[in-house]
Amino acid sequence: xxxxxxxxxxxxxxxxxxxxxxxxxxxxxxxxxxxxxxxxxxxxxxxxxxxxxxxxxxxxxxxxxxxxxxxxxxxxxxxxxxxxxxxxxxxxxxxxxxxxxxxxxxxxxxxxxxxxxxxxxxxxxxxxxxxxxxxxxxxxxxxxxxxxxxxxxxxxxxxxxxxxxxxxxxxxxxxxxxxxxxxxxxxxxxx
Length: 191
Description:
Beta Polymerase, domain 2; Serine Threonine Protein Phosphatase 5, Tetratricopeptide repeat; 8 helices; mainly alpha; globular
């Protein structure tokens, strides 16, 4: 069964929106429901892989990226190789420090909860960067000043230390950035 193009694009847009809002539970549920329908659709497979990366399901993300890479041999500019290398490094680092997916998801959701409690909205954009050694920097872009973002970083750190035996610092970081930084970073990336 194949999705009609419009349905596929709607799912890609919805997954992107849910990830920007850092709603990993809703995004993951949609990705799980869409995976079988995504066969042969590089855009949807890529959106599903991004969802799994964000939801700390790296093994699932690697599988989906590898599937997309098989389909994407004729798609100019597509390469899942760099993504799978970083994800495999993240998996190895998590295993080295004994972190499971569920534990990392709870840390992430706690950070998002702190942001939503602060302003009732939470992040308006979300990005992440995986280092070569596998640690992941999670950036929450909010409609706040740099000073307020620094305060929110401390609130997140305090909540993680209060609520968890381990705060994940060996494998991830969370930072709050003004929303304008998201657009500045993307403008720089686009040239």
